[in-house]
Amino acid sequence: MGRGPSIEARKNASDAKRGKIFTKIIREIGVAARAGGGDPSNNPRLRVAVDKGLVANMSKDVIERAIKKATGELEGVVYEEVRYEGYAPGGVAVIVDCLTDNRVRTVADVRHAFSKCGGNMGTEGSVAFMFKRLGVLSYAPGADEEKITEAAIEAGADDVVVYADDGSIDVITAPDAFQAVKDAMDAAGLSPDQAEVTFRADNDIAVQGDTAKQVVKLLDMLEDLDDVQNVYSNAELGADAYA
After folding, report:
1. List of long-range contacts for 48-54, beta carbons under 8 Å, 24+ apart
2. Quick check: 169 and 139 in contact, CB under 8 A?
3. In this structure, how many other beta carbons lie within 10 angstroms of the beta carbon of residue 53?
4. Stretch 176-193: mean pLDDT
5. Of these four, 6, 42, 90, 145, which has the most CB atoms within 10 Å of its CB?
6. For residues 171 and 153, what is the distance between their CA atoms, to the nearest angstrom?
7. Mind listing the pLDDT tens digit for each residue in 24-79?
């Protein structure tokens, strides 16, 4: 019987994944601070990024350094936002949000991922119209549906979605209302397990078998790129896609 990876190997893999998450959050903090100032209380986008860093157990010192680099108090690299759009196998629409200091490198990496996995890049706006930008506060199965619904309505949320398969709950908000709703839910003792401003497709496309596996391969390959912050798709994937 073969042996699994050693404790050291597993730790190294975990550290590498954690480092990649930190890198993405630090870039997001930097872009948010440069665009709207270094005070999270007056910069909603920065506050969301800082909260994301704290949830990921990022130290306050690391967060403060990232803000200072972005606002010019410390020397740092300047990143810009770039979005790419395209199609995965099966006609699945994909949006790729990047933060980069080298557009040539980033577009080459993204194009390579699409090409290698049987997809193709599209022009700007070719798939974005299929998605809506919204705030999502997610609660794990077992959360109190009645309390969450009541508090969410009081806070000004747009919708509360309860998923029949596992009982998890999403509170949906307009992007500009996201922080106010999250603050109200926190104040009510109903802090979400995950909260973000994201893109969601108007309609999902179901893909199965080998096509679904190719879609997963593409999405994973894109998310592993250093310059990629977020990947969104309208793929509806079954369990067999990950087999």
Report:
1. 48/178, 48/179, 48/195, 48/196, 48/197, 49/25, 51/195, 52/25, 52/28, 52/196, 53/22, 53/25, 53/26, 53/29
2. yes
3. 21
4. 94
5. 90
6. 9
7. 999 999 999 999 999 999 999 999 999 999 988 999 999 999 999 998 888 888 88
Long-range contacts of 38-42 (CB under 8 A, 24+ apart): 38/67, 38/68, 38/70, 38/71
Question: What 8-state DSSP symbol labels residue 51?
Answer: H
Check: pTM over 0.85? Answer yes or no: no
Give per-residue pLDDT as tens, 186-232. 999 999 999 999 999 999 999 999 999 999 999 999 999 999 999 99
Please write the tens of the pLDDT for every residue from 228-240.
999 999 999 877 7
Q: Which of 235, 242, 226, 158 is nearest to 200 (CA)?
A: 235
The 8-class DSSP code of residue 100 comes to E
Distances (CA, A) of 58 to 44, 142, 180: 19, 28, 24
Q: Tokens for 19?
A: 């480092």
- What lies within 8 Å, CB to CB, of 156 at 6+ separation is 173, 177, 180, 181, 184
Report how far residue 179's alpha carbon sits from residue 151's, in angstroms, rounded to the nearest whole number.
14
Cα(185)–Cα(157) distance, integer angstroms:
10
Q: Which SS3 state, helix, strand or coil, does residue 103 take?
A: helix
Q: How does strand 205-207 pair with strand 235-237? A: parallel
| Dihedral sign for Cα atoms in the order 96, 180, 183, 173 | negative
